[in-house]
Amino acid sequence: MCSQIIGQAGESAVINLLQKDGFAILEQNYKKFFGEIDIVAQKDNIIAFVEVKTRTRTTTSMFEIVTPAKQRKIIMTAQAYIAENNKINMTYRFDVALVQIQNKIISNITHIPNAFCQRENI
């Protein structure tokens, strides 16, 4: 499987998981020149900015994939989304979804709500 197909399969699986949990999907692959957010979802007054990481091999710890530099890009992109869509009075969180594929089948999804947060120095 090529990496684009693997990534799309992972994002689709996470979208299904979020929708089952009552989230509405507002955006998929929201892009700005400085970053991208895989999924923007809303449930009640919560907006979740979700980074999806899909892998077929586990050579690296899946928890080390979203680096501080990647977090900064996601946060900047989220700030642009909030401003553009007038979502000022909401509660925000940054989630990570880790998707494992084995033999072309999704074997595991780990959704981590509030995986990281915006800090003053980011």
Write up this protein:
With 122 residues, the protein is an alpha+beta fold. It has one domain (3-116): 3-Layer(aba) Sandwich (Trna Endonuclease, Chain: A, domain 1). It has 2 helices and 5 strands; from the N terminus they run αβββαββ. The chain has helices spanning 3-20, 68-84; strands at residues 24-32, 35-43, 46-55, 91-102, 105-116. A 5-stranded mixed sheet has the order 1-2-3-4-5. The longest helix has 18 residues, at 3-20. It is globular, with a radius of gyration of 14 Å. The chain starts with a helix and ends in a 6-residue tail after the last strand. The mean pLDDT is 88.
Quick synopsis:
With 122 residues, the chain is of the alpha+beta class. The protein contains two helices and five strands, in the order H-E-E-E-H-E-E.
How many domains make up the coordinates?
1
CATH topology call? Trna Endonuclease, Chain: A, domain 1
- Can you tell me the overall shape? globular
Largest sheet: 5 strands, mixed
| Secondary-structure content class | alpha+beta
Strand tally: 5
Please give the count of helices.
2
Q: Indicate the CATH architecture.
A: 3-Layer(aba) Sandwich
- Rg to the nearest angstrom? 14 Å
Separation of the first and last Cα atoms: 35 Å
- pLDDT under 50 segments (min length 5)? none
Mean pLDDT: 88
Strand content: 35-45%
- Strand ordering within the main sheet: 1-2-3-4-5
CATH C-level category: Alpha Beta
- H/E element order: HEEEHEE
Fraction of residues in helices? 25-40%
